[in-house]
Amino acid sequence: MDIGTGDIVTLKGLANQQEKPIGIVNKQVGFRMHEIFWLNDYAERFALLNHVKSHRLEVLSRANQQ
Asked: Fewer CB near the last or first residue (10 Å), C or N of the chain?
C-alpha cells in the first residue's frame, strides 16, 4: 500500500466503528513507518503513538500531490 505525506488515515479494521482515530501523515520515518498527527482524541483512547507502521493504517483520503 502506498501511503503518502498529507493522506488522511485511520486504523485498519475500524470501518464499522463510529468513533475511530483519524490522522494526517506528516512524513515517512524509516521503512514502512509513518509519523502521524492525530486529529481527534480517540487516538488517546486507543493508546496510539505518533509513529505507526504502514500495515496498520487505512487511507481514508489521498492528498493531491503534484
From this structure: C
52 φ/ψ angles, rounded to the nearest 5 degrees: -130, 140
Scan for cell 487505512, then name that residue: 58
The DSSP letter of residue 16 is T
pLDDT tens digits for range 7-58: 999 999 887 888 999 999 999 998 889 999 999 988 888 888 899 999 999 9
Contact 11, 34 (CB under 8 A): no
- Beta strands in 1-66, from DSSP E residues, in sequence order: 8-11, 23-28, 33-38, 51-53, 57-61
Half-sphere exposure for 64 (CA within 13 Å, toward CB)? 0
Cell of 14: 475500524
Q: Which residues, including other chains, have CB under 8 Å from residue 41's CB and lie 6 or more apart?
A: none
